[in-house]
Amino acid sequence: MPIVISDVTDGSAGAFDIMMSAIATNLDLQYVAQRIAGADYANVYLGAMQTALEQSIRFVEIQASIAIQEEAAAQDLALKQAQQDLVEQQALTEQQNTLLAAQNLLNAQVQEDLLTAQVAKVTAETALLTQKTITEYAQTEMTTNSTPGGLVGAQTLVYEGQAQGFKHKAANDALSALTGMWTIFSTSGTEALPVAADTGTTGLIYDMIVEIYNNAGSAYTAP
Q1: Helix (H) or strand (E) run with residue 69 in it
Q2: What confidence tens digit (pLDDT) does each residue in 195-216 have?
Q3: pLDDT of res. 194
Q4: If you count Cβ atoms within 10 Å of the first and of the last residue's Cβ in the chain, which end, N or C, has fewer?
Q5: Contact predicate 215/171, CB 8 Å
Q6: To the nearest whole number, what is the mean pLDDT of the chain?
Q7: How large is the C-alpha radius of gyration of the chain?
Q8: pLDDT beneath 50: ranges in the chain
């Protein structure tokens, strides 16, 4: 802080004013006690005044220097505190960056695991589809939409054979019925079996048996 004249003297509160007040009081006491008299009083007063002026200026300079030092110390302390805050903020930022990097790494690992699981799922589904295809081919021995072979084809042949057997049995049963009717007519003295034109009960039964035989015979395919 700069030194101004009022700090040294302003007529009452300056450093010089305060010193001179104290000096004057002491000189008066010495004069009353007759320790200083005549011309010595004036000499002592002038010397004291000169000393007080020098010391008051020195005192003000020291005060100004102390104030400057205190202000500099305060600024230095504030600067150090700001630097400390900056270091702490940098450390916090670095810590946050480290945590963020760790989180990013964890996220990447999770995504990689998820992708691996998805790839494994697709691979398993592909293998299952392939196995189903192989199984279907093994059952049908088919590569096109033609008549199936393999297990399905064998089952189909069995079912067809059973159907043919039923038709064959119907034809045999109809033939047996016709043979039985012929035996009855031949032993009864009738010359011939009834024909389709006959309208009696026997003729109708004959027609039904012939129709069954014809239908079974036309549908039957020899193996």
Answers
A1: helix 39-140
A2: 554 555 556 566 666 676 676 6
A3: 58
A4: C
A5: no
A6: 79
A7: 69
A8: 197, 220-223
The whole-model pTM stands at 0.39
- pLDDT score of 81: 95
Q: What is the pLDDT at residue 220? A: 43
- What secondary structure does DSSP assign to 81-149, as a single string? HHHHHHHHHHHHHHHHHHHHHHHHHHHHHHHHHHHHHHHHHHHHHHHHHHHHHHHHHHHH--SSSSS--
Rounded to the nearest 5 degrees, what angle is found at the Cα of 221, between the Cα atoms of 155 and 162? 35
Tokens representing 159? 């079912």
Report d(CA 39, CA 47) in Å as an integer: 13
Contacts of residue 169, defined as CB under 8 A and 6 or more positions apart, other chains included, come to: none
Burial of 94-128, coded b for 16+ CB within 10 Å and e otherwise, reads eeeeeeeeeeeeeeeeeeeeeeeeeeeeeeeeeee
